[in-house]
């Protein structure tokens, strides 16, 4: 009889701890989870159906979380190296994009929704003139810290190499 009672007590303790762990996991994962994707080098067709020469960067932000949030700011930071960002050193340049086309800020983003905006790639390249690493990010009302993603732009050297190979 004592062995059966002990086995039931052990099973009860294990399920209690597992339930507590699951509740902690759910609490930590609750809220908005923003996924940012930046696609540089996009060509835009203007209203006159002609292709614009100047490339744009498309910024897509999806809310994969369980609660809505409001995106307030879109920005870029540039750093000399990855370690500078990890150590929270001051960025070399910071650019704020108050009116990204066609997206509007601030913008409410419900769970499962997607926000898109575009910025001129020229503005991102200007940030890389004095630094090597570019990050684009957003501030939202659910967090004090921004959500940031690293962006790789093709260097001008690659463009000149391809131009030389065509001649």
The overall average pLDDT, rounded, is 88
The overall number of domains is 2
Morphology: elongated
| Unreliable sequence segments | 156-167
In whole angstroms, the N-to-C terminal distance is 91 Å
The SSE string, one letter per element, is HEEEHEEEHEEH
Q: Return the CATH class of the largest domain.
A: Mainly Beta
Taking all Cα atoms into account, the compactness measure Rg is 23 Å
Largest sheet: 5 strands, antiparallel
Portion of residues within helices: 25-40%
Q: Tell how many strands the DSSP assignment holds.
A: 8
Strand content: 25-35%
- Count of helical segments? 4
Known CATH architecture of the largest domain: Sandwich
Do you know the CATH topology of the largest domain?
A: Immunoglobulin-like
* Structure class: alpha+beta
Description:
Residues 156-167 have low confidence and may be disordered. Strand 7 (133-140) and strand 8 (147-151) form a beta hairpin. It is elongated and about 85 Å long. The N and C termini lie far apart (91 Å). The protein folds into two domains: 1-30; 32-153, Immunoglobulin-like (Sandwich), CATH 2.60.40. It has four helices and eight strands, in the order αβββαβββαββα. With 167 residues, the chain is an alpha+beta fold. The strands form two sheets. Strands 3, 4, 5, 7 and 8 form a five-stranded antiparallel beta sheet that branches. The chain has a three-stranded antiparallel beta sheet with strand order 1-2-6. It is 31% helix and 33% strand. It has helices at 2-29, 82-86, 121-127, 156-166; strands at 34-42, 56-63, 69-79, 93-96, 107-109, 114-120, 133-140, 147-151.
